[in-house]
Amino acid sequence: MSRHVRFATALGLMLPAIGMAQIGPPPNPTATRPVVVAPPAPLPTPVRPAPVDSLSGQMAPVKSNSQVQQQLRSHPIEARGTGPTQPIQGPTLQPKVYDRHGRIIPGAKQVGPNRVLDTRTGKYYDAIPSGDGQQIRP
Fold it and tell me: Which pTM was predicted?
């Protein structure tokens, strides 16, 4: 290998090391401005209301956790049968909106008594009740 090739190779290997030595580590971002650390928020202390004896109206003694657990084990929850059945509520259907000629306007909604919004145009129209919906006034 010639002398010039060795010199170029050595120079090529040393250039990145020389460049990194000049750059150095990045400066600390808090070196030029003060750092204020907010104090941690205090944890709220849970407040347990004192139980009231329902018969005498006086305060009942507070029970420990083990007493409560023991009482729960000794008194299981009793089922009282099935509850009253609730009717199934379907989605409420918007009344149909008809144009001046009696054709259904898709996407139109009733927004108040005798008021209709055409969602495609963004216009509000006065309407009159018509069969199962509203019809835009002529």
Answer: 0.34
